[in-house]
Amino acid sequence: MRRKPAATYHHGDLGRALVEAALATIDRAGVDALTLRELARQLGVSPGAPYRHFADKDALLAAVAADVTQRYQAEVAQAAAEAPPDALAQFRATGIAAVRFAVRSPAHFRVMCTQATHAIDPATADNHATLAAAQADGQLAPLPLDAILLAARCAIYGLSRLIVDDQLPGGPVTLAQADAMALAITDVLGHGLVPRLPGDPCTAPSAAPTDPAPGSARRGRPSR
Amino acid sequence: MRRKPAATYHHGDLGRALVEAALATIDRAGVDALTLRELARQLGVSPGAPYRHFADKDALLAAVAADVTQRYQAEVAQAAAEAPPDALAQFRATGIAAVRFAVRSPAHFRVMCTQATHAIDPATADNHATLAAAQADGQLAPLPLDAILLAARCAIYGLSRLIVDDQLPGGPVTLAQADAMALAITDVLGHGLVPRLPGDPCTAPSAAPTDPAPGSARRGRPSR
DNA sequence: GCAAAAAAGTAATCATCGTTCACACCGTGT
DNA sequence: ACACGGTGTGAACGATGATTACTTTTTTGC
């Protein structure tokens, strides 16, 4: 009773507390382990109390997903802000940030993808303009912008989901491995699968185009 | 009692029937709508009967996932067999086949990804040899094979999951749209993001490198 | 100030689900 | 003929999501 600034009623701010407790439970034991009753138990309220704040379990999950989405987008945006402004560096930085989020909080990431319909898009409007400018400057290949955006998004989202879905051989993925894989992907995407003419600038802006990739992208070999 | 070849006992082949009924239910209403009791009801058996064939619900789901995985791999393999043997054509064909499966049976695809741990790999061992040969022939860029394989896998898996997770604006995706998107992605991946020198062979083998992509990859524009 | 209304929580209750257990049924091998 | 193992029955148990009627607290309109 000393000082409860916002604690106005019995609990103060159930609703917010429910979301945070749900986040903790999901992060610890996965979405399937989430139970409204157990949540109410943890917060010391009756089993029916949560229904004053959320229509049903799905509504709570939607709120959780919204919270996760906000953190996700903030982290990606910050990574974009801290990276050099050229298109490839932006792609690399945001890709790495996105994959890192997935590695750090796989369960949260999964909830976000399942519940928050099309919320994974890394700022389509701005990118369009930026990429168009990059193409005009000759920094970017003259491919349709929609196709470029889609390919980049698929590659990063694919890596993230491969990780959180446990589809990569070799157990859980470390942050360093995730970084290396994201880098390798951006390099491949930047360079292209079709061989280039000798003397082509290729993926110069990257650190070491071919070295960091195989050292960590070795996963995939021991699968069969 | 005329001729029931395998129908020996009360039901004949529960277990198989359970898997098929589960597949139908999942395809119609999603995994969350799957209930062991309802399944038993449909098959005219008691609620405890399924437990003679599966330890629990997860075991049934694992069997379902195995069934889906088999069909998925068969379809992808057939597409690979029917496509030209060069590396890029193989990538395109298997990619399109995989995405088509996801579009046709989103719920099945999701169960497969969630339950069947690392089963989405399109034949890593063979590909390694094929790609190495392609690289030696100069048909493929001299990038680390692991990175190439990873990037291709991420792009296709990413597109598939973007579709089944409903992360693409514009409602459900048609088969034609999915084909176009897969094609656009393979083109971008083949060409590379970094501009090429004038006169470079580029993505010649494809039909129309830049035309089919924007017509259908327009999705992403109306998002914001 | 204060009483009415709105917000927040409680306790009891329902339907359903996953799962288990003791028992009954059926074909088979001896 | 008979025991036995694989298969299905039927009735439970515990837990969950959700609803309802009721109480308590906070807010707020006058």
Q: Describe it for me?
A:
The structure is a homodimer of 224-residue chains. With 224 residues, chain A is mainly alpha-helical. Chain A contains 9 helices and no strands. In chain A, helix 1 (16-29) crosses helix 2 (36-43), helix 4 packs parallel to helix 7 (145-164) and helix 4 packs antiparallel against helix 8. The longest helix of chain A has 26 residues, at 57-82. Chain A is elongated and about 70 Å long. The relative contact order of chain A is 0.09. Residues 1-8 and 204-224 of chain A have low confidence and may be disordered. At the A-B interface, helix 4, helix 6, helix 7 and helix 8 of A face helix 4, helix 6, helix 7 and helix 8 of B. The structure holds a DNA duplex (30 and 30 nucleotides).
Concise synopsis of the structure shown:
The structure is a homodimer of 224-residue chains. By secondary structure, chain A is mainly alpha-helical.
What labels describe this entry?
9 helices; homodimer; disordered N terminus; DNA-binding; 224 residues; mainly alpha
List the helices and strands and how they pair.
The structure is a homodimer of 224-residue chains.
Chain A: H1 16-29, H2 36-43, H3 57-82, H4 87-104, H5 106-115, H6 124-137, H7 145-164, H8 175-191, H9 212-216
Helix pairs in contact in A: 1-2, 1-3, 3-4, 3-5, 4-5, 4-7, 4-8, 7-8
Chain A binds a DNA duplex (30 and 30 nucleotides) through helix 2.
Shape of chain A: elongated
What is the terminal-to-terminal distance of chain A? 62 Å
Helix content of chain A: 55-70%
Oligomer: homodimer
Count up the helices of chain A. Answer: 9
Structural class of chain A: mainly alpha
Using the CA coordinates, give the radius of gyration of chain A. Answer: 21 Å
**What's the order of the H and E elements of chain A?**
HHHHHHHHH
Instruction: Kindly estimate the percentage of residues of chain A that lie in beta strands according to DSSP.
Output: under 5%
Biggest pleated-sheet summary of chain A = none
Mean pLDDT of chain A: 85
